[in-house]
Amino acid sequence: MSRKKVLIITYYWPPAGGPGVQRWLKFVKYLPEFNIEPIVYIPENANYPLTDSSLIDEVSPDIKIIKQPIKEPYKLAGLLSKKSSKTISKGIISESKTQSIVEKLMLYVRGNFFIPDARKNWVSPSVRFLYSFLLEQKIETIITTGPPHSLHLIGLKLKEKLGVKWLADFRDPWTTIGYHKQLKLTRKSKQKHLDLERQVLNTADQIIVTSFVTKKEFERLTPKPIEVITNGFDSEATKEVKLNSDFSIAHIGSLLSKRNPELLWKVLAELIEEVDGFAEVFKLKFIGAVSEDVLKLIDDNNLSDYVDKIGYVSHKEAIEYQKKSQILLLIEIDSEETKCIIPGKLFEYMVSNRPIVSIGPKDSDVEKIIKETNTGSYFYYEDSKLLKTAILSYYKAFQDKTLKSHPIGLQKYHRRALTESLSKLL
Known about the structure:
There is one protein chain. The longest helix has 17 residues, at 187-203. The chain has two domains: 4-72 and 113-232 and 415-425, 3-Layer(aba) Sandwich (Rossmann fold), CATH 3.40.50; 247-399, 3-Layer(aba) Sandwich (Rossmann fold), CATH 3.40.50.2000. It is an alpha/beta fold. The protein contains 16 helices and 13 strands.
């Protein structure tokens, strides 16, 4: 029986680093096991904000990858301000009151001249190229994954021209994602985003989302079938690591300005003052980009001496940091819009055998998953007493050398199981 060919249109692909690349890298890895041949379409010269060359080794030489050039406005913006261009492309947007004139201008241009996003100019050349390619290769099914949501416009046009079966995968929401409010959109631009989002949702044959909250949100916009396929974890081949000897609380990934839990910094400052021996062993580790606003608030709470700022590391090294840290930190902005966000790292946290301390909005998907899998503790922004009690109990378990998590039911989040769910839609 011949394998079904499927074209996957994605912006993020090795050597891109960060969370955006993992989802389809892993789907592509496992799809051949379910009699599906993935063909991957990517930009030839993408200006990735983060790179991780170690991920190139995960791409099988048997996978067909096709590339077309892309014009990246962030390269041009870098001539105006290299720092602002790089941080905005990473999704790090500082508070309005601390933004420079250059940053405000760049956000306005990004929001109103590049709809739906800065990769919009790749749409037309991609449609021209893929129109012929799909006909030649006799491919009848395509998948687009966003962000960048401009890639869904490639799917939209190919669906209109060729009538292919089209699955639109949303790793994040579109118009309700947190940073949209910071893009200084005009009323006309906001409406254009809403119109494009509705058009994509009502034209695709199948919508895939990574969270249950996003599914509910999209169900109000389209009658098309929507399937939740979360991100997950893979069987990572990492070397054996030794647990940190200090009481390390580690955050892996970007910690943006809005994700700045003052209650946590205050609780940690109190524990340093009140608990004998805590100050001697406590470490706060940041693996990834950290906003200046976060570091300032940490300093205001006299915690700077306890901070170990490691910066961005490869995915393999990030997994090692997860396994050797005593506690893993997961922070989300306290808002209605962020209830749907399930960071990819949550699933890797869950299989690290380390307890998770998560702070976020009430009734979020993260809260649901952490409670269901028994992988840690979840707190709301008004829960400072509960948070303090939990960290103190973790500290006592650390002293007794009994600190670890006790997960249940994780196998459904393995990348192979998730790919099986995807294969059924195909």
